[in-house]
Amino acid sequence: MENVKRIVDSLATDSVTPYKLLRLTEIESRLCALGIQTLLAELRKTHVGAEWWEKMLQRAWLSSTLDVAAATDPYVRGFIGSTHSEYVNDFRTLDRSQLQMATARVQRAHAERAIAAMNAHPEQERLIRQEAAKSMRHRSIRRMFKEAGDVLTAVCPCWMASPLSVSQAIDGAAGFFDFVIFDEASQVLPEDAIPAILRGKHVVVAGDNKQLPPTTFFASGDDADLSDEDDTSIGYESLLDMMIPFVKGFHLNWHYRSRDEALIAFSNHHIYDDRLVTFPGPGGTPAIKHIPIDHIPQEDGQEASSSAEVSRVVELILEHARNTPDVTLGVITMGVKHAQRIQAALDHALAQETDVSEFFDSSRHERFFVKNLERVQGDERDAIILSVGYGKDRAGNLPLRFGPILYEGGRRRLNVAVTRARRTVTVVSSFVWSDIDASKVRPGSGLDFLRNYLEYAASGGKIFSRGELTDEPMNDFEADVAEALAAKGITCVPQVGCSKFRIDLAALHPSERGRFVMAIECDGATYHSSYTARDRDRLRQQQLESLGWTFHRIWSTDWFLRKDGEVERAVKAYTRALERIPQFVETPRSAPAPQSTTQSSRRSSPSPPILKRGSIDEYSVRELLTLVEWVMSDGRLRSNDEIADEMFLALPFARRGSRIESALRQAIAVYSR
Fold first, then answer.
1. pTM
2. How many Å apart are CA 601 and CA 594, to the nearest integer?
3. Average pLDDT in the 365-378 region?
């Protein structure tokens, strides 16, 4: 009775709530009219706090929208990702079969045309058979074209020749060819191309006008007497430059040479305006690194070719020949003199190093070479050593006399050099990027390109000259996938890549930093933006797998309808991918014990994850930066000497020489910026 009296008294004295009830009833009526009375009943039943009401309404709205979509379109609920993946696999198989059949159709058409020509010109057929049976005293090619041109071009419809040899080999009176195709047209002078153009009905010109233009360097036929300061490297208008303004053209944008995106990302950004479609590699060993040589010459003349740099390059060549003889190698230098000195020093070293002679056999496929900038266009190797050569004078100053790259087209010459590698680029120089005075560099010049590229190489290929990052934000679907996998202990990096093609999510190795385990592709905006089914369902996956990725597809409909099953499937795929990768091994040497348990508990890990390697040069700047971050992760203030001491103790080396000291100091300097 007392409780009832107390309640009645409180109601009698409340002059605010009754008026609120009127407003509340009005709002409830409007909400019921909109059809969410079920949600209101749920709120009354569960007594959920008001801060959750908006999210519950959003969830109810999205769920009901999905129900309506499923009721309207039966394919939504009826979609099963495994079945759809089978359709995609069938498409891939059929697409490859179609390419094989297209090849067979071309071969059949060629055979039919050759038979028809031989039937129409039996005398020409007999002449060709007679010449093929001879062992000596053959008719010239020019005469054969004149006497048996119909059958000759039917049997051999494609001919390859240099522009200057066409006039000697083929008579220009008769038009034997439908198409004349120029490859590497940026290297062809227009006047040299005219004889070949006159021998066809149509012309196709292919080339890259961002690379080396034609020069008198090649016309001379002998570069032995050329100096680095000769004007023979000045470029002339090429056939490609001449044709671009008035013929229809299009770009070939997909880049296949580089096995790691870092090898082409710099040129793509600075030269090709991010137009190229490149594919990121799975990480692991850095694809690009910079080895600075601490050297000031003791005598004049070494500013154009550092002796210390020559010695270091020869060491790197011999290490490569011993440790990775199956990986092809080339050395590119800025100047002729430096290339000659490296070749001479290498020849002298090989006189004592007979165990690696097979690697330098000139008969090998893609044999080893040492070339300067002007001679390297068209070459490619698995690994490239780019040796700058130019260095400081005896006073410690860096003269900005860098030979051909200072001339017009210097950027194009350097672009050739930095895009020759398929797997790795090692840049060697006796100075670092910051030694080049930015106030004396003209923006867009070859020297500007060199300065920026040295900075890029010092970062392990992770930054551009303006410091742009290569990551982009996730969309909601990708964020949900990443969050669900993170709950299972799988860390994912979104939008991996630095071109138009990006991997939606890349799953990281659990212990090896910078190493990716699996590429996860979602059927989001990137998938649907592909021009063709071949691009999105075959070529992208095929290219990633060829680079070493394990590929995993998540269909959005499966994720929304059967999320738990998709998470489990992704975890299993990650586990299988992890089993294919050699396990990461930490060095047994531990870091010095911290001064207090408080400091130890603030460190990111009990010991730094550093791989065993034979030389400090094999560690990327990224790995050394990771080591600096670990040293500093306990929050203690340290001098650079103390940081270097702790870094060295974590590395698997017994002695701390000048090269190790230089690498540690460089990493600390980058970290401090």
1. 0.69
2. 9
3. 89
